[in-house]
Amino acid sequence: MSGGGGGDNEFEVNINLTALLDVLTNLLFFLMLGMAAQQISVEEMGGVRLPSSNSESPPKQDAPVGIGQEALKVEGQIVARIRDGEIVAPLDKEGRVKPLFQALQKLKEKRVPTAKDADVLFVLCDKDTPYATLRQVLMTAAEVGFVKYRMAVIME
Amino acid sequence: MASEHKGPLGGGLLGKDSAVFEVYLNLTPLMDVMSNILFFLLAAFGASALAVVATTVPVQSDTETSIAIEEDKVTVTVRAEKQAGFTLQCESVTKTRDQLKAYGGKLPKVDSGFDYTGLTAALKKIKEHFPASNNMILVPDDDIPYDNVVRMMDASREFRLPDGRKIILFPEIVLSGIYKGK
User: ipTM score here?
Assistant: First the structure.
């Protein structure tokens, strides 16, 4: 920095931007990684193409049930195959999907019964899934004790 | 970028006199680019691409009725048929079917698609008359894709005014056809 004499002052200011650049770089990497992680967690559910919605409720993602084009998953594990939109798995007398019922029972046991979201299930469902298939999954989940659902969608 | 020669200080690598250079990197363009990327990422991250639609299923109970029991409250049932479109029906313990008949009716399909705009308008009319109402029972046909079910829920949840404000219609949607015995 230098100052001129008289009324004509000229200042040459050298701002050290390195610290600011460090902060920005860190933020950038965290945001990029965060976005990538969110993308991956949805893609991992196996060919699930989510519908878009004008809902603005933020997701609270935990132990999702995924209804894809080819497989029905609980916590990332395939419990049944899906063919032409229909679940290929044995049903019990009440019409529940047996392997799904068992997997959800295990999931229910893991949760604290008194917890606020103990009966809430996060569901990722492919947009072309027929309602009958979704109904079958939700009915099975309801029989286990999951009566509230958070259906994942892509924000419009 | 600017460099300043401070004068010789000793022997250099090439056997000549080397010098100490004070280098000022102009980081402004880099900052510009990074700031732009950052703002875009922040905007996208804040909006969060993933959202959720909350729903529930009917639960059998001996003590409570799912039908609205307050004067300014009704429960709307929307039946979605793949061929015929929407059929609306209102129910309330305090009002007769004849009293609520005016708020029900059919909304046929428009251009081979469901009339979501018509559904929102019909629900808005019901909400204006029964402002305390929040509950809607959605009964889609078995072969209706989930994508359409979500759009029905979107059309039922809120109405957007031209200035961007929202009027909440029926945010508590129960997917029916699913039975949970207690």
Answer: 0.71
